[in-house]
Amino acid sequence: MKVFLLSAILALLWVPTAQAEVLLQPDFNATKFSGLWYVVSMASDCKVFLGNKNHLPMSTRAIKATEEGGLHVCMEFLGADGCNQVDADYLKVGSEGHFRVPALGYLDVRVVDTDYSSFAIVYIYKELEGALSTMVQLFGRTQDVSLQALKAFQDFYLMLGLPDDMVLMLPKSDTCIPESKEKP
Ligand SMILES: *[C@@H]1O[C@H](CO)[C@@H](O)[C@H](O)[C@H]1NC(C)=O
Q1: What whole-number distance in Å separates Cα of residue 101 and Cα of residue 127?
Q2: Which N-terminal residues, if any, form the signal peptide (predicted)?
Q3: Nearest-CA residue for atom 7 of ligand 1
Q4: What confidence tier does 28 reach under pLDDT thresholds 50, 70, 90?
C-alpha cells in the first residue's frame, strides 16, 4: 500500500515538460536551416508569455550558420514603436541542431523537426528571472504553414504536456524583414 501511494504521489509530481525526451531532427544541416523564417505560432508555460500572449507581435528570424556549427540569429519584432531587433548566438551543444543561448537564458534549444523549405519546430527550455519554462515555436518560410506542419507542432507540444490554451497563433501582419546583412 505504501509503495502504491508513493508511486501515485510520484506520478503526480512528475512534470512531463522537464522529463519528456526531445529528439533532434536527424542529420540536421545548419546551412539548409539558414535564411529567413517567420514565427507562426508559439506554445509556452512561461508566465510572462501567458500574460502577454494577446499582445505579442509577429516576429521573424534571420538565421546564418556559423563555422562552429552554431547559428547566428537576428530576431525582428514589430512593436508599436516600429521594428526592434535582437541578435543572439545559438551555440552548438554536442549534436547538430542542439544549442544553448546564454544571452537569452535558453538552457536547451533543439530543432526537433524541419523540412528546411517550409516549416520547423523548435524546442526551447529557458530560465527567466529564476523561473524555468518550456516553449515550442513553429517557424514557417512564409506566414502560412501547411496543416501537416500545424499538426506536427500540436502533437509535439501536447506530448510535452503544454495544453492548447497555452498556444498562440501569431497574427499575420506586416513584419520587419531584416535587411540582408552579409557579414564578412
Ligand atoms: C548541408 O547543406 C548544404 C546546402 O544544401 C550542402 O552543401 C552541404 O553539403 C550539407 N552538409 C552536410 C553535412 O550534409
Answers
A1: 11
A2: 1-20
A3: 31
A4: very high
Report residue 164: phi and psi, to 5°.
Answer: -60, -25
For the CA of 30, the nearest atom of ligand 1: 1
Whether the per-residue pLDDT at 183 is higher than 50: the answer is no
Residue 38 in grid coordinates: 517567420
**Residue carrying the nine cell digits 533532434:** 24
Tell me the H-state helices in the chain: 2-13, 16-19, 30-33, 47-52, 147-160
pTM, two decimal places: 0.83
The C-alpha atoms of residue 28 and residue 22 are separated, in whole angstroms, by 14
pLDDT value, residue 181: 45
pLDDT tens digits for range 63-98: 999 999 999 999 988 777 778 889 999 999 989 999
Q: Look at residues 57, 82, 81, 77 and name the one whose alpha carbon lies nearest to residue 171.
A: 57
Domains annotated for the chain, with CATH where assigned, are 24-169 (2.40.128.20)
- Centre of ligand 1 from the C-alpha of residue 152, in Å: 25
By most ligand atoms within 8 Å of CB, the mutation choice from 25, 27, 28, 31 for ligand 1 is 31
| Highest-confidence segment of 7-11, 16-20, 147-151 | 147-151
